[in-house]
Amino acid sequence: MKPSGGGLQKAVADRGGLKRVRCLNSRKDPVVFLEVEVESDAAQPTWTYRLGFKGEGKANNRITIDSEEVWQGEQSVLGRPDDADRKDPERLTQTSLEQINANVDFRALAHFLSSITYLHLVPQLLKFSDQIGGNQLERDPFGQGFLLRVADTNEKTRNARLRRIQEALGKVVPQFKELRFNRDKVSGHPHIEANFAHWRVNGSWQREDQFSDGTLRLLGLLWSLMEGESLLLLEEPELSLNEDIVKMLPRLIRRVQRLSKSSRQVLLTTHSEALLSDQSIGAESVIRLMPSAEGTQIAPASTEEKTMLESGFSVGEVLLAAVKPKSVEQLELAIN
């Protein structure tokens, strides 16, 4: 569903082909199966999208659709393969989801999937963007073009967002006073500048290349929360951040969402007990992924764990213990 197109064939190719997408533990069944459920409004039926695909089995081994279904509640909107697919198997190299003419009956679902944002801001790409140059990945998942997105935002909206971020950062970044957008008078390149209080009366203005990695990551995270209405995927937002700030992340996210006109659903991955120490995070908000000999399993909280959570223990204290590698204590011995 990327705006540049490519659809199913490019999506699989970008990930290294079918052998990289398939589960390592799969044996006989060659079909990769995906299922997505989207609830846009409690009063509206839930959208369900199912896709199964596999290799063609011929010389070029293109990806072909084994099944594609769209449901809105209990009503079937799409079912493939259909008679047209059986008459013309070439059709099975493209999903109906990726085709404008074919997704007209479920375009709301297509728009939602195409608007999902993934962010794993890499501070060095932002600090040294002028020196690094090069190609920028579509959707900019690593924040290389973050400053350009800020610059392209309507001035009134941009200033309002920066004020909210300024208020949030002022509570967690030492000596932080003020945040502003500026352009280099010579090159015209956009910059974000922050004023830090010190012994001088007016403090000191610094540009983004002087910010700490943690400040940059936090800045990108807070901006992304206000940048759209669709699902936001964050990968390990605790990286580079002080542990006390990590503990505040859930509250910061909620605060920014309350201050924004619309709040995004946020899914994040984390290994941080500090982040999960927030008492407002319940077991129902956490999906625990457990590695096993037969692949990764989803493990809900056990009865004993639920009792511990009800007794006042945090999700981090209870649920993270179970995903700790059993042989981690042997790592030091193995190195020696």
Describe this structure in words.
This protein is α+β, with helices and mostly antiparallel strands. The chain folds into three domains: 7-114, no CATH class; 117-262, no CATH class; 279-336, no CATH class. It is built from 13 helices and twelve strands. The chain has helices spanning 7-14, 18-21, 83-87, 107-114, 123-127, 129-132, 146-152, 155-170, 213-227, 243-259, 303-310, 315-323, 331-335; strands at residues 32-38, 47-55, 63-72, 75-80, 117-119, 176-183, 190-196, 204-207, 232-235, 266-269, 289-290, 297-298. It has a four-stranded antiparallel β-sheet with strand order 1-2-3-4, with helices on one face. A three-stranded parallel β-sheet has the order 5-9-10, covered by helices on one side. Strands 6-7-8 form a three-stranded antiparallel β-sheet. The radius of gyration is 23 Å and the shape is globular. The model has no long low-confidence stretch (mean pLDDT 86).
